[in-house]
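Section 5.1 Outputs to date
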Amino acid sequence: MAAACGAIGYTVSSLAQELHKFPHRNRNLKTVSNEFDPTDFTYLEGAFFSAGLFLLIGAILMLFIMVYLCARACCCTSKPGSGEGKQGCNPIFMIGCIVVCGGGLVLGYYGNEFTRTGIMGVSDAINSANSTVLSATSRVNEITANITGTGPTLEMLRGQIMNTTLPPAVKTDANRQISEAINQLDTASDSTALISSSLDSVPNVAQYTDSISKYDDIRWKSTIGALCYVLLILLIAFLCIICRSVGFLQLNVFLTLIALLVMWLYGGIFIGVGVLTGDFCVDPNGYVESAISNSSREQIRYFTLCGNCSNPFQSDFDNGRANLMMTQEELANLTADIRSAEDNSTEDALNTLGIVSASLRGVDTVLINLYSQDINCTNLNTDYNDLLTSACGKTLDGATFTFAGCFVLGVTLTVFIIAMQLYWTRLRDDMEYASPV
């Protein structure tokens, strides 16, 4: 009895476990399953609950900012000159906000690059696995073609032997040996056909690599664009502090409101994606097994888990190779029998036998390489673990850093808007400073 399969080469990260513990609630605030299932709308509701909560906090802060700005604009005025001597604290505080925002930008940029590295690693792992499957399919097709082509050659050999001057008993024995060799080759061909059928049942995921690359390109560019927009706002704010410009401060408040909205949206998206990824990374093997069809489950389980798993191709490989070996043995015996007859008319038959024997030795070599390099779980399991390392390591870390950057920027920009408005009000009310705009 084969030992139970055991996953090798992958350990669930503490970050994935913590994200998996995030509350999963539906629209009625009832707890739903946190078992990863992207086809279940109820699960998706629960997974994005944290994103919705984050966006709700952002919306409340945005509403607070809007009410505050309207109240200050409509109700709060002061006498000219009342702000004199008070501007010194606000610029220092605003510069402090700019520095904190710079830290948020660094987190966002670092997370964005880390996420890109992880997604590229996922794509590379998928392409590598696809190359292994294509190599296995190519070798199986080569074996099948050689075996199929050997049958007619053996029939030709039968005719050549029948046309020699060998004794009838030798011809009869040779005819039997050739028939047995053909039957054994047919059995070997059936075994390789079963291997081919098993390989065909393995899902082709390489078709998704183009979509993954396009998604990552859009994600990377849009995130960089948003971070650059915030950087531009911070530069304008710094110039406003230096120039003490009322007009530019007023413009920058409006621009910062847009940036604030973008940061809260991005933060919600990244925390939602982080929870989804965390749910997957806690038990990736369980999801993979549940998502594939029964016809390929044994093969996928072998390639993904690998450790102590029985090879589903083992029986077909053993049968195919055993029949190839018996065929070569029959042909070796036939060659020995013909040579022992010392008949000059057998030269063509011996040449054909040599060609067939060499061809079958080549088939045996290809079959061994197929088993050791392609349908052995080591290579594909390495690709699978690389995929998990990229998705559940670098990509998840990157999404978390990006979320942290968006959170820092969201909170700091909220405070920054209030600081700019206060500074703008004091500059406006202080007749000593006039707007150049």
